[in-house]
Amino acid sequence: MDSKLSKPVDLTGFRSLTLEHGNLIGLGLIIVGFWVFFALKVPGFVSSFNIFVLLRSLSIDVVIGFSTMVVLATGGMNLAIGSIGVCAVMFSGYLMQSCGISAAPAVVAGLALGIVLGWINGVVIVRTGVSAFIVTLATTSLYSGAMLILTKAQIYNQIPPGFATFARMQVGVVPVLLLVALAVGLGLLVLFRYSVLGREILSTGANARAAELSGVRVNRVIIFVHALSGFLAALAGILLLSRLGAAMPSIGQDWLLPSFLAPVLGGTLLAGGFVSVVGTVLGALLVATIRSGLLVMQVGSFWLQLFLGLILLLALFIERYRTLYSARRSKLGGR
């Protein structure tokens, strides 16, 4: 009887879920508050056209957020998301315009390139032992520079009409692009909650040494998440290519801030070990809401950058508080 009472109960998972639910509820209330504010301030904000544009923009923000989220799960980061995305876009655009290849195989080739570039990041990180921050910071310039040299910064605007039309399709009031993003989110939810690989990714982020001692092939996990991040960055670029109807070398230059905002606001830990797929979607929705609301109010883009920067700082403070709170509760529970 005494041995049963003295055995500690692991409530880490329960606490994580409790914190996640609390964060999701708080984030949802903030989003509702912004929607009410913008709707009262500018009635055009809730017009069917603006909502469609907002949701279509949201679809790309969500996938960009997922691209960072999967790497944050291991405690790493990927600063080369924008560079990988634009490389995939330019490669697909080149195949469609210069090579006359139809949209489907060109898109597959672009996604494959994203996987390869992400895989290169992972391999370099594992083989050299250099931090993901330094490696992906270097490959950001490497990939972008190589793309500009090979394409001569040319814009590929002869995209098949059917592919460009895809971005304007909708099911009811929901853009098809958003359905694609949500399908990706469902796949990631299954990965992290119900698969062995997902548990290995999270355990690597929580404690890489302990995970390795438990039989997890940490190096392979790191390479996998970077390859997956590259795929998602390429997918975000392809969705944007469909929306714009042209492959431009400027795509991806402003992805870095939103890519961190969505998962961090959603509750994903920067230190690794915990992710929130639903939270990332809500975080991206908050960013898209603020961006759309400020545009409708005709506020300058520099104010948008200021607000997003302030929101990221606030999210980092909240994330830090959440980490300290979780650690304090764990110590209390272990007594």
From TrEMBL:
One of its GO terms (cellular component) is plasma membrane. It is a multi-pass membrane protein. CDD domains: TM_PBP1_transp_AraH_like. The keyword Membrane applies. The chain crosses the membrane at residues 20-40, 52-73, 103-124, 130-150, 171-192, 221-241, 261-290, 302-321. Keywords: Cell inner membrane, Cell membrane, Membrane, Transmembrane, Transmembrane helix, Transport. The complex is composed of two ATP-binding proteins (LsrA), two transmembrane proteins (LsrC and LsrD) and a solute-binding protein (LsrB). Part of the ABC transporter complex LsrABCD involved in autoinducer 2 (AI-2) import. Probably responsible for the translocation of the substrate across the membrane. Belongs to the binding-protein-dependent transport system permease family. AraH/RbsC subfamily. This is Autoinducer 2 import system permease protein LsrC.
